[in-house]
Every structure is written in C-alpha cells, then in structure tokens.
C-alpha cells in the first residue's frame, strides 16, 4: 500500500488513524534502539491527534489532506514543546516554543507528528555520524552510514517508522541519504517552501523538503508544504500545481532529458551502470535523451563550502549560551567547530574579498551555466551520489566526506529543484537516480519519478 492509498483507506474508515500510529509505534519500539533514527518521540500527542481525526471521520466531518498520515521531523525544524537540538549538545535542552511553518501546515491538514529525527550536528555533515546522539544506521545496508545530514529522515522511511519525513537540504542533505537508504527524497525550488522555523546552516542554500517510500508521499507532502509564507522573505508566491494529479502518468512523450558526461566522470563505474539502466527506463517511457556538458564541476564544491562556512559562522553567532543552550564553540563537535573557525577566518574583512565574494561570483557562473544546460531540456538526470556509503566509524579526511556532495551541491547553488529516486543496487547497497529541473518545474520531476515508479 503506497502513501496515498493508505490516506484513502484512513479517510474511508477501512483503517483508523490510531491503527496507523500504533503500527509505527510498534516498529519504532522494536527497531529504533539499533537504528537510532528518532531522538525524541511524541507518542502521547500522536495518539491524541489520531483519536481526534478518527472521531471526525466517524462523525462524517471533513478532515485534512494528510488525515492520519504519520510524520517524522528533522531535529533542526521547530516543533512546539519538543526538544529541537539540531543533534547538538549546544541545544540539548532547547524546547521548541513554536511550530515551523511547515509543521503548522502539516498539522492543519491533520498530519500527525510522531517524533524528532536524528541528523548530523547542525546539518554539518554527509553521514549522520556527527550527531551528539550517536550515528544512525542505514536500514538498507546495516553497518554503513545512511548519508546526511538528514540521515534520520531517510532511515526512518527505509525502516518504515513513519509515512513521510521532513528534512532540510543545503547541499544534498535530503537527496544524499535518500540515495544511500533506497528511498525517495525531494529538494524543492529554493523559495517554494517556507524556511521559517528552520535552524539554518546556510540561509542562501537551505531548503526544506520531504522523504517517503514512494512518489505519492512526496506529492502529498509538497501539496501541503509548498506554499507562500508572508513571514519568510525567501518564499515565492507561485501558481503551485496539484502534485497528486500526475501520479498515474505512464508516458514521458514530448519530454527531453539530458545526461552530463562530467557527472558520469566523477562517479564510480558500478553506480553509473545501475543509473544508466534507470535512465533507459525513462527513455523507454518516451523521453528523448540528449547530452549536455558542464565545465565547472571542479568549481562546485569549493564554491559551496566557502559560502557554507561564512553563512554557517554567521548563523551560529546566536548560540552564545546567554538566553538558552550552551555557547556553541565550547560543546560542539569537530566538524561544526571546523566550519565555524574557517567561516570566521573567511568573514574577516581582509579575506572576505579574496574568498567569500569570489565564491559568490563563482556561484553566479555556476547558476548561469546550469540555466544554459536546462534551456532546451526538461530534466537533467544522472547519479545522486558518486560513491557508495562507507562503514560507520571509518576514518575519512574532510575532503573525502565532502566528495559525497559533488553532484548534489549544484542544485542548491543554482536554486533549482532536484530529487533522488531509487535506481537499483550495487553490491546490495541502494543507489539513487538524481533528477533536476528548471526553477519551479518541480512538477516535471514528480512526473518523471511517477512514470519511473509506474513502469517498475
């Protein structure tokens, strides 16, 4: 049963919202100690929400578009009365005093919040090993990382602990773990979803988005959370489609998709073989395949991290231990401290022009090049992550860790929508197919993923 089928089952009374919650509670209680996807649970409120929804359905009252579906929320997105720590000792006692806009929207449509999900500390990582609460296991490849920074979000979906999870993506933090864990993850167009209530890592790059086991879960979530928010300055007032209307599509006739040789060149051969088979399925469904080139692949990671360091340093100045929490530099992990120190150095007046401002110029070059690549095509398709996830605890140099992001940071630098859908496996480990589109062409990605899923 996919997510939309379950929703319809709850609305029709075949299944109750309480049964849905209780089913997930059972799975979480059995498996979370080993997987470590959830770091805080909200069972009592979740059951109360479910009972209220069931009562409305029994009385013939109208219920919301997400009635009875169970959500997990990444630990850097505010949920009132739950500890929102960003998986850091800095905020281990910080209780959310309000709901992020996306959380408000989910609750307003009768979605149920079952708990808070593990992540890399302050989203600074690609493995979910930097969490103060310990690493998260990859349920699809036990002993290996689930990816990051939204590793708990992907692991919870892969382990069937919730229907949909909500993560954040700054340079691949939704798509990277979606690829490693064999689930679907979606980073919307920058500004399509409100970031109000998100503990930002890099404000010009961050975007909130959903993960699910199938495309219907992504479509349902986007219908609710992709919305203009007058309280958040980056959100766009746009004509949002109904993403669920295209879930039955089986043809990509008239759609042009592109592969990029430079993306293939940086990716392991076995991953490329698996991804190529997935791309062929899109072609078999009627898509026209063309090739594009991208001359700035080597520029992407340094540009991304220079911007990330400076914006993260700025964002962390509020964690000074005066009003709440601890002073971040005194308690944070090595990767967070590394980014703060480098960001502080680059932000100094004498270096700002040499590094940060140059990175902003490079970002413009990358964005312009991506715009050109997408000018005459609907989608760019290729691998999500260029290598398989390493074993938990393996010693990696920072640049080895950052290399996981080489194909995903591009969408954040350009502000375009991008998603990862399971393409297949290499040595029993999932790998993802990444699909990218023009700004606000999010619907085309949903369509391609839906056709891919419908022709499995």
From TrEMBL:
Q: Which reaction does it catalyse?
A: L-glutamyl-tRNA(Gln) + L-glutamine + ATP + H2O = L-glutaminyl-tRNA(Gln) + L-glutamate + ADP + phosphate + H(+)
Oligomeric and partner information:
Heterotrimer of A, B and C subunits.
What PROSITE patterns would the database entry show?
Answer: AMIDASES
- What's the EC number here? 6.3.5.7
State what protein this is by name.
Glutamyl-tRNA(Gln) amidotransferase subunit A
Role of this protein = Allows the formation of correctly charged Gln-tRNA(Gln) through the transamidation of misacylated Glu-tRNA(Gln) in organisms which lack glutaminyl-tRNA synthetase. The reaction takes place in the presence of glutamine and ATP through an activated gamma-phospho-Glu-tRNA(Gln).
Q: Which organism is it from?
A: Methanobrevibacter thaueri
Specify the Amidase domain's residue ranges. Answer: 19-445
Q: What class of enzyme is it?
A: ligase
The GO cellular component terms are: glutamyl-tRNA(Gln) amidotransferase complex
rRNA processing recorded as keyword: no
Highest rank taxon of the organism = Archaea
Which terms are listed as keywords in the entry?
ATP-binding, Ligase, Nucleotide-binding, Protein biosynthesis, Transferase
| Catalytic site positions | 74 (charge relay system), 149 (charge relay system), 173 (acyl-ester intermediate)
Q: Which GO terms describe its biological process?
A: translation
Q: Does the keyword ATP-binding apply?
A: yes
- Give the protein family: Belongs to the amidase family. GatA subfamily.
Which GO molecular function entries does the Swiss-Prot or TrEMBL record give? ATP binding; glutaminyl-tRNA synthase (glutamine-hydrolyzing) activity; transferase activity
For this protein, the record's Pfam families field holds: Amidase
